[in-house]
Structure prediction request, 454 residues.
Amino acid sequence: MNIKLFKKGDLAVIIAVAVAAVVFAFFAKARTDKPVAVISVDGVEVEAVELYSLNERKEINLGGDYNIKIIAENGGIYFEHSDCPDKLCINAGVLRESGDLAVCLPAKTVITVEGTDVDAVVY
Amino acid sequence: MNKIAKALAAVAVAVLVLLIVADTVKPALKFSFFAMNTFVSGEVEGKSLKETNNEIENIINTLDKMILSRTAEDSFVYNLNKNGEAVADTELFGYFTKLAEVSAKSGGAFDYTLGAVSDLWSFGNTPSVPESNALAEALSHSGYEKVILSDGSITLTDKNAVVDFGASGKGIALDELKNYLDTAEVSRGVISVGGSVLLYGNDDFTVGIKNPSGASDYAAKLTVKECCVSTSGSYEQSFEKDGRKYHHILDPETGFPAESEVISATVISESGLLSDALSTACFVLGIEKGFELAEEFGAEVIFITENCEIHYKESKDTAISVSGNFTAVKH
Prediction:
């Protein structure tokens, strides 16, 4: 058998394209693997923060009936204030890693850190 | 070969490689919503996902409103508590039977009639230490043996007993969801109802146990097959008064927060109800008795203690990897 489909040069181009595709896919995936904290109120996303690219402390005032205030800083995000009775949201502490979750039930406000390395967290 | 064919070949290779690398071509849908006074979130893979998502929300809301809620006037439990008797369908009667069994076998460490007592503590609202006379009065009307189960009918022998699904409702929701997923075109699903989790499908799943200290790493990671996993932890809801800390897992004997060496108990079971109810029972019972109880129900339990030990038994179904900040203690 000596049917040559591709010349050497053509093959090189195809391999180069394939390598470029892998590199692109790798970076595309790596980007989504960076932890992103998503804040949502009653199921609606109101803010997304890339946790490891903040240069300064960021105050997120959601207000509402419970006067929710969230602080994001490089590497962490947390409920700073809520007028809810039990303060479970504040007690949840600083969220840093994928899968971390803090919920203020009365205010229906949730912070989740996305990009997961486990399927679920029990608490 | 002409140039067009070569260009097409190059594109085809690139697309193929991208598809292989991406490896996330399975249709999956993430969802989250508030129901049953808690936060529900999850992800399902399969067909008709939008419908599935709506149905999941519907099932939980219906379960709460029609069965479990203490306050909704149409709910089964509301009417049982009000009238002192009610007739349940086979499935619901089955749940009551299981709860009675966990109550009895745990020697009352789990009790589904503690409603009046937990109302006094008011966790989830503005918690406070109950006044001792009121607590004694509420305790005198509690006790699982005050519920008589016979042929589908449920009778309270004490009119003031208050059936409460607070320590098992999330688990029952998981069982209902599992029944539904069996009929839906779902190949894999993970659903968390307020931290009690259903892992559904023929696959391996990883589950992180929250670090009780609040630190961000998991205390342990579990690798499990299809099952339900629930945790009862004293760190989850608590308050301080006069320098003393009070958490939300009550000992049915004293009416006060349970005191044992344990700060969290995680239970793995095929049944959501059992994972939920047994995690409470095991927390109250402590390590040795907790292991025995879980075994009686074919469930596994993992304890975390105050001094950062993680106690577990080896199992063929569950692999556990303990974080470096904890000491693994195999039994």
